[in-house]
Amino acid sequence: MSFLAPALLAALAAIAIPIVVHLVQRDRRRLVEFPSLMFLRKIPNQTVKRRAIRHWPLLLLRIAAFALLALAFARPFWPGAGGAAAAAGAGRDVVILLDASHSMGYGGVWARAQAAARQAVDGLGPADRGTVALFGSTVEVGVRAASERAALAAAIERATPGAGATRYGSALRAAAGLLESSALPRREIVLISDFQKSGWDREQEAQLPSGVALTTVPVGEAATANASIVAMTFARQEAPGGERVTASARIVNRSVAAIEGRDVVLDVDGHREDARQVSLAPGAVGTIEFAPFALAGKPARVTARLAADSLPIDDVLYAVIEAGGRIPVLIVEAANPAPDASLYLARALAVGNEPGFETTVASVDRVTPEQIGAASVVVLNDTRPPSGAAARALDSRVRAGMGLLVAAGDRSSWPDGAPDLLPCRPAAPVDRSGTTGGALGYVDYGHPVFEVFAAPRSGDLTAARMFRYRACAPAPGAAVVARFDDGTAALVERKAGAGTVLAWTSSLDSYWNDLALRPVFVPFVHQAMKHLGHHAEAKAWRTVGETIDTADLSGIRDSGLGIRDSGSTAVTLPRPTVLTPAGKTVDFADPARNTFMLEEPGFYEVRTGGEKPGEGAAVAVNVSAGESDLSPFDPAELTAAVTPGAGSAATAAAQPLTPEDYERRQSVWWYLLAAGVVLLAVEAVIAGRFPRIAQG
């Protein structure tokens, strides 16, 4: 029990009044008048205090009345939500949402969060039920609807901060679901967190049901000092026997103070390769470039480590890099090509390194089926298609998944007996050489070939001048992804089996247009080759909370291990073994797929056979970079957003209660005052009817 005005407890000293009354001597003798006192001897009258209390019930009645009055004026109440519910005589169902994201590991934040959770458990009344749930990127229920405080407290003690990112919306929806079936008259969510901005998306749907109160308990620190490694980039150069890779680490200082001379170390496959130092001003971003290291044929596990601070989990960044894959491209020219017909195209492909391109140039009369079979992309550059065995190889390879680019220049044609692969049939050229030329009037920037140009200042495709191009009516099923300003199709796409065919209705040199002289030409060619060659950028790392399938990993996909469906018959093959960075084996929850969730940072190993530790396919996993930003937001903003009728009495009830709120709701003083007045009335009746008793 607590008191709103504890100073008034000094009035308890008034209980001494009846005690003093009972202990003080009173003269009860009656005066008798005599006609004369001259013959009586004068004796002094002595006052003697009584040594014993003769009427205990009356004394206790008076003491109790004074004590109740003093307690009433001190305004007592029971603190905590449990006391409020106990005073109201109603049970509650309380979900304690404890933020266990990785930002809660900063300094002493987690200790304060556990203390706040224990205090919420201590506030539960005898009729209340509680649930402890931990949340980050996912929600984990520790103890469900328990009335025993010991079980709830034990779940709080066992909890530790995880590696996930904060997601308030999903946590509140899960808590509301836990309370949905509750039959208790009061339902409440106690949210304990550091309330960082990155965890709250104001656009997400997270409305609490009517009648569910939300109490927020912030435990974060007002001033934080945290630096983290948020990314790494890798520049590659060809070298004898492999590649030379230069790694660069991107570091963000989110501290209120500068960092000076902090060590940054680069490890490759467990060996220290280089070390640097970084100094950054408050809020600054810097890049540290390490010395190049050799990359052979197998993937390398790369780790960048920043000297640890108060949040060490984001001071390490893991990555897996593979030797740069190269896309083989076969350029087929006309039998009598124009001078330098493939010069610009070949030079554009020569500067690519992520991925690189292996370029071969052949004449249409001399190209062989073996050359076509070895290519991932074939470019028919201003020429007719090959004939004979080469034509059949081209048709089968495209339908099997190879890419084909047709540049319909001056020497381009497509005979009737050629493979049926063209997205559109080229017609006579449109000549605009007597003017300033045409331009691209429509571009589908959502298409993989053009998506790199969608961002501002990423290159202007419409600046290129088009002096000649062919009219080309799209075939059924083909899609036009770019048009000239007069509406003529410029780039047309068609699927042929598993392969993709693109038709560019102008040339790839400087004769019919000046696109090859523009800065956009190189990225345009690279994007087209990657799209036609089905090139997928290998992820250097993934983020905690992602779910992946081992079949999508390089090496695992080629081995064919796993579970696949062959027609109507399910064929079960041996499953790979997945080890977490802590060395534990992952259990696949889905019996039909080899999928699993990434729950901790480090290197996951995927083994398909008898590989030794460190030899299986590796998946690098890092914590969310956004979670490292510890900037908080006002919890009242969250409460107002998720509570129905924000600004009404329902919302006010969801706010943390002050001592005045608890005292006003419980009104214990009124009962004490009434009891004291009743006792005083009883005492007055007794003392009036029995005066000898009143006198002690």
Strand order of the largest sheet: 17-16-18-19-25-24-23-21
> What's the structural domain tally?
5
CATH class of the largest domain: Alpha Beta
Terminal CA distance: 35 Å
Q: Main β-sheet, in a few words?
A: 8 strands, mixed
Radius of gyration, whole Å = 42 Å
Poorly predicted regions are 47-51, 84-89, 557-572, 646-655
What would you call the shape? elongated
Within CATH, the superfamily of the largest domain carries the name Class I glutamine amidotransferase (GATase) domain
Tally the helices: what do you get? 16
CATH architecture of the largest domain: 3-Layer(aba) Sandwich
Average of per-residue pLDDT values: 83
Helix content: 10-25%
Structural class: alpha/beta
What's the β-strand tally? 33
- The CATH topology of the largest domain: Rossmann fold
* Strand fraction: 25-35%
List keywords for this structure.
alpha/beta, Immunoglobulin-like, Rossmann fold, 33 strands, elongated, 8-stranded mixed beta sheet, 696 residues, 5-stranded mixed beta sheet
